[in-house]
């Protein structure tokens, strides 16, 4: 079995819910789990992961994994929002998986709203993490295509093209299919029959 996993998908593809359910199931069968996530203000502390459908669990929030050491008794480490860690943080997770014999399961985004891959996500691919795509459908009116991209909107509904990769929250984002992304971001119209 692979010991390093990357569950990736667009926003609203149930990644946090899947993580929380996994944590719950591991607890129930006696597997020792740690849940970690990035913090954005240099502080270490307990925070919650909350999914859109109301599930939640506690997580250790940390600004970097440089000083992180897994509890020796831990079997599985679940990582939320992994795209906000750095490439060297991913290398630390590789070390923990291979040298400390833990299973590491990461959850996060692959690309930002400018269609650029996050460095941490690229690093996970480079180091051979087992990839699991979490599918969801395009959020543009009734479109049933696979959502693979994000569009970022300002308060007036205009697409933001040179966005900040590290912006928090998704109230200004939509998960969309590639065709709608190209139409709304690059103004490339879809062919209609
Ligand atoms: Zn679409």
Structure commentary:
- This protein is α/β, with parallel strands linked by helices and 193 residues long.
- The chain has a domain at 4-133: P-loop containing nucleotide triphosphate hydrolases (Rossmann fold, 3-Layer(aba) Sandwich).
- Helices cover 22% and strands 24% of the residues.
- The strands form 2 sheets. Strands 3-4-2-5-6-1-7 form a 7-stranded mixed β-sheet, sandwiched between helices. Strands 8-9 form a two-stranded antiparallel sheet.
- It binds zinc ion.
- Zinc ion binds at residues 138, 140, 143, 145, 176-177, 179-180.
Q: What brief labels describe this structure?
A:
4 helices, Rossmann fold, alpha/beta, binds zinc ion, single chain, two-stranded antiparallel ribbon
Percentage of residues in DSSP E strands: 15-25%
End-to-end separation in angstroms reads 46 Å
Helix-strand sequence: EHEEEEHEHEEEH
Please state the average pLDDT score: 91
> Which blocks of ≥5 consecutive residues have pLDDT under 50?
none
Q: Tell me about the largest β-sheet.
A: 7 strands, mixed
Write the layout of secondary structure elements.
Layout: E1 4-8, H1 15-28, E2 33-38, E3 45-50, E4 56-62, E5 76-79, H2 87-99, E6 103-108, H3 119-126, E7 130-133, E8 149-152, E9 173-176, H4 178-185
Parallel strand pairs: 1-6, 1-7, 2-4, 2-5, 5-6
Antiparallel strand pairs: 3-4, 8-9
The site of zinc ion has 8 residues, from helix 4.
């Amino acid at each position: 079995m692979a010991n390093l996993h990357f569950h990736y998908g667009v926003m609203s593809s149930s990644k946090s819910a899947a993580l929380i359910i996994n944590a719950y199931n591991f607890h129930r069968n006696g597997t020792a789990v740690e849940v970690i996530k990035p913090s954005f203000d240099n502080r270490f502390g307990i925070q919650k992961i909350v999914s859109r459908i109301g599930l939640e669990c506690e997580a250790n929030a940390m600004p970097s994994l440089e000083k992180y050491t897994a509890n020796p008794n831990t079997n599985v480490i679940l990582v939320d929002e992994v795209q906000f860690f750095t490439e060297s943080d991913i290398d630390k997770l590789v070390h923990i998986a291979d040298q400390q014999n833990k299973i590491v399961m990461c959850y996060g985004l692959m690309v930002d709203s400018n269609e650029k891959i996050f460095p941490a996500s690229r690093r996970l691919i480079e180091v051979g993490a087992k990839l699991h795509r979490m599918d969801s459908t395009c959020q543009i009116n009734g479109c049933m295509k696979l959502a693979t991209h994000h569009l970022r909107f300002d308060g007036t509904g205009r697409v933001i093209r040179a966005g900040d990769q590290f912006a928090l929250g998704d109230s200004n984002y939509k998960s969309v299919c590639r065709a709608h992304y190209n139409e709304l971001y690059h103004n490339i119209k879809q062919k209609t029959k």
